[in-house]
């Protein structure tokens, strides 16, 4: 199953659906409100789609492709089947905008990915930066060719993963370390696992080591090739963020300064950090070195979701078994064709897949959309991957803006609704929106714990 099935019991809700459209000579809006039992079954979702066509007076040959909350114009649009995930448990009223598209769009063939951009060009070429922005806007992902330093570091880390993950379970588990003293805060570095994967998570060590001694990452006992890969991917992500900010007409530091991917002083703590359990030893951005379990090992891969951070850089994955060749598996959801695209097919061994998370989508008003993606369990051999997740500091101020994109679809409403909140403390945005109004994350009871982010 692509999306994580809901574990919540059925509940009654009232959902207001709004379709707004404009042409060169007219503008109109149709709204209907329906009582629904959530979550919807697949047959319920199909019946609802037909009802909305009639109630919203859609033209022939068009239908509802996706929906998003009216107060989140930057959020990824979702199929009707996932309506339940947009409504927090304590609420019963939901207002959504519908995105209407021509049915003929479903038959549009997928375009082959263009040649990768060169990481070295992104730091000094305005044309390369503009192309990176354009690809993320159009395709949701972009391919970037690593420079030699980064390529060498990722190759070394993959070699070290073979040795690390074949250790006894106790040796791996010994590397798990909390980054905050508060019992209710779950930020950590080190080893962890779920039903489909094992991984080692590295973070930047915010307490700077003395000159000539100490590691720059947590956990400090992690193999040295992992730290080298972390630092090189951190450098690459800083280059990408600066390129995207400049191409968006912003100061080059506008995005990077909110994160820990450069060597500027750490983001100053605020009173809000008390809610998160105090100042962390580890930075917000993480490198996760994954090994995926095979289908015959009861592996379930990774269900569909959008990343909660700013940007994800994922080096080309490799097979966990000799001869360690390529192991494509990342699938990205195309909301304009309602299908899954194989994002890593023919990805070169020294290439990266780059895509945005929801924090960056908020900052750009949806100009840079967050990519919904998943990884099915490998069928023949295990899979190694090492995505680097760039995240804003919990106390960073994320101030969104209205989208400036010229969306050629007349039915795509991008103007924020009157109740849209576009200015958030990062911690509040993650806890109140991304952990409460998304179908891929269980709702978090903020009264007792703060999840790892």
From TrEMBL:
Pfam families: 2OG-FeII_Oxy. Residues 260-283 are annotated as: Disordered. Signal peptide: none annotated. InterPro entries: IPNS-like_FE2OG_OXY, IPNS-like_sf, Oxoglu/Fe-dep_dioxygenase_dom. One of its GO terms (molecular function) is metal ion binding. SUPFAM superfamilies: Clavaminate synthase-like (SSF51197). Keywords: Iron, Metal-binding, Oxidoreductase. Residues 283-392 form the Fe2OG dioxygenase domain. Belongs to the iron/ascorbate-dependent oxidoreductase family. This is Fe2OG dioxygenase domain-containing protein. It comes from Prymnesium parvum (Toxic golden alga). The lineage of its organism: Eukaryota, Haptista, Haptophyta, Prymnesiophyceae, Prymnesiales.
């Amino acid at each position: 199953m692509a999306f994580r099935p809901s574990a919540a019991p059925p509940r009654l809700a009232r959902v207001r659906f709004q379709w707004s459209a404009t042409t060169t000579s007219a503008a109109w809006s149709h709204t209907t409100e329906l009582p629904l039992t959530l979550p919807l079954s697949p047959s319920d979702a199909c019946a609802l789609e037909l009802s909305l066509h009639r109630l919203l007076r859609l033209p022939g040959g068009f239908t509802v492709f996706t929906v998003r909350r009216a107060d989140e114009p930057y959020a990824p649009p979702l199929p009707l089947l996932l309506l339940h995930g947009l409504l927090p448990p304590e609420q019963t009223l939901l207002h959504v905008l519908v995105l209407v598209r021509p049915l003929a769009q479903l038959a549009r063939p997928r375009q082959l990915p263009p040649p990768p951009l060169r990481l070295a060009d992104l730091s000094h070429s305005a044309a390369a930066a503009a192309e990176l922005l354009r690809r993320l806007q159009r395709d949701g992902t972009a391919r970037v060719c690593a420079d030699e330093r980064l390529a060498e570091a990722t190759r070394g880390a993959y070699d070290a993963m073979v040795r690390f993950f074949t250790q006894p379970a106790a040796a791996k588990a010994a590397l798990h370390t909390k980054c905050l003293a508060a019992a209710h805060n779950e930020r950590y570095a080190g080893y962890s696992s779920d039903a489909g994967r094992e991984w080692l998570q590295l973070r930047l060590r915010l307490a700077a080591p003395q000159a000539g001694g100490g590691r720059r990452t947590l956990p400090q006992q992690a193999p040295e090739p992992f730290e080298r890969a972390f630092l090189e991917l951190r450098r690459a992500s800083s280059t990408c963020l600066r390129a995207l900010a400049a191409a968006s007409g912003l100061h080059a530091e506008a995005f990077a300064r909110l994160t820990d991917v450069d060597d500027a002083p750490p983001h100053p703590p605020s009173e809000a950090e008390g809610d998160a359990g105090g100042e962390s030893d580890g930075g917000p951005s993480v490198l996760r070195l994954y090994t995926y379990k095979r289908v015959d090992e009861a592996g379930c891969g990774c269900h569909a979701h959008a990343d909660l951070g700013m940007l994800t850089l994922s080096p080309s994955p490799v097979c966990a078994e000799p001869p360690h060749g390529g192991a494509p598996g990342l699938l990205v959801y195309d909301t304009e064709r309602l299908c899954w695209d194989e994002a890593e097919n023919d990805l070169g061994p020294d290439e990266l897949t780059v895509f945005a998370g929801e924090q960056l989508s908020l900052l750009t008003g949806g100009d840079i959309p967050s990519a919904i993606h998943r990884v099915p369990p490998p069928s023949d051999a295990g899979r190694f991957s090492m995505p680097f997740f760039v995240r804003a500091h919990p106390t960073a101020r994320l101030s969104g803006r209205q989208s400036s994109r010229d969306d050629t679809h007349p039915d795509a409403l991008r103007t924020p609704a009157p109740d849209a909140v576009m200015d958030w403390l990062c911690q509040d945005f993650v806890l109140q929106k991304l952990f409460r109004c998304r179908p891929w994350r269980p709702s978090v009871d903020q009264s007792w714990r703060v999840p790892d982010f």
